[in-house]
Amino acid sequence: MLFDFTTIPARECYKLLVSTVTPRPIAWIVSQDAKGVNNAAPFSFFNAFAGDPPVVGIGIGSRRPGQAKDSRANIQETGQFVVNLVSEENAEKMNITSIEFDSGVDEIAEAGLTALPSVRVKPPRIAESPVAMECELMQIVELGESGLVLGRVVAMHVRDDLVLGASKHYTGAGSTWSPPETGAGSTWSPLEIDTPKMKLIGRMHGSGWYARTSFLFQMPRIRVDARKK
Ligand SMILES: Cc1cc2nc3c(=O)[nH]c(=O)nc-3n(C[C@H](O)[C@H](O)[C@H](O)COP(=O)(O)O)c2cc1C
C-alpha cells in the first residue's frame, strides 16, 4: 500500500514512521535548567551519527506548539546534557521519567533514581544506567515543532563489569582501528565491551511496545577482495 506523505496528515506520517523504523535505541537524557534543577526524559528518535568527532543526535519535540519540551529548552539554554542508555531492569523507571511533569520537577528523584556527578558537564548521570555519555551541544537543527539536537560526546561511563578490555576498547592491544570487516588485517573485536550483558531495550511501535536485545544473530561484513574470490 502506498502512503503519500505529501497528502496525508502529519499525525499519520508520524505513526507510519514510528511503526516501521524499529527498534529504536533510547536516549535517557539528563539536562538541567538555568537554576540547576535536574530533568530526565527518554527519547527514541536517537542514534549515533559520527565517530570522529563522536556525535549523537536526538529528535526532541514540543509540549505544545511553540513550546519545546523541557529537555530541548534546557539543552538550548545550557549547552550540555547526558545521554544514559536504558537496560531492561530500568525500563519502568525510564517510563516514569517520561511523564509530562511540570517544568522544574526533578524526574530523577520522582523515579527513585540516583544522580551521580558528571566529570565534563554539569548535568549528572543516572547511576543505575549501564552507559552514560556526557555531551556538549554542537547544533540544534530546527525541524518544524521538533529539533534535532546534535551533541558531541566528551566522556563515556561504562559500568565496570561490562568492560572486558579497559585499555583496548574495540581493537586489539596496540593496534590501530580498522573497520568492522572480516578477513586479513581485521582487528575488530566486539567483545571488548560486553554489549549483550547490558540488556539494552529498544522502542518499538505504539502502545508502549519495547524490544529486548537478547535474541541476536551474527553476520560479519564482507570485504570486497573476499567477495571477488
Ligand atoms: C520510550 C519513549 C521514547 C520517547 N521518545 C521521544 C522522542 O523521540 N521525542 C520526543 O519528543 N518525545 C519522546 N518521548 C516522550 C517524552 O519522553 C515525554 O514527552 C517527556 O515528558 C518529555 O520530557 P521533558 O519535557 O522533561 O523533556 C518518548 C517517551 C518514551 C516513553
Quick structural summary:
This protein is of the alpha+beta class and 229 residues long. It has helices at residues 10-20, 70-78, 91-97, 107-110, 195-198, 224-228; strands at residues 24-25, 27-32, 38-43, 46-51, 54-60, 62-64, 67-68, 80-84, 115-116, 125-126, 131-143, 146-158, 201-203, 210-212. The structure holds flavin mononucleotide.
Detailed description of the structure:
The chain is an alpha+beta fold and 229 residues long. Helix content is 17%, strand content 32%. It contains 6 helices and 14 strands. It has helices at 10-20, 70-78, 91-97, 107-110, 195-198, 224-228; strands at residues 24-25, 27-32, 38-43, 46-51, 54-60, 62-64, 67-68, 80-84, 115-116, 125-126, 131-143, 146-158, 201-203, 210-212. The strands form 4 sheets. It has a 7-stranded antiparallel beta sheet, sandwiched between helices. Strands 1-13-14 form a 3-stranded antiparallel beta sheet, with no helix packed on it. The chain is globular, with a radius of gyration of 19 Å. Residues 26, 39, 41-45, 59-61, 63, 69-71, 95, 98, 100, 203 line the site of flavin mononucleotide.
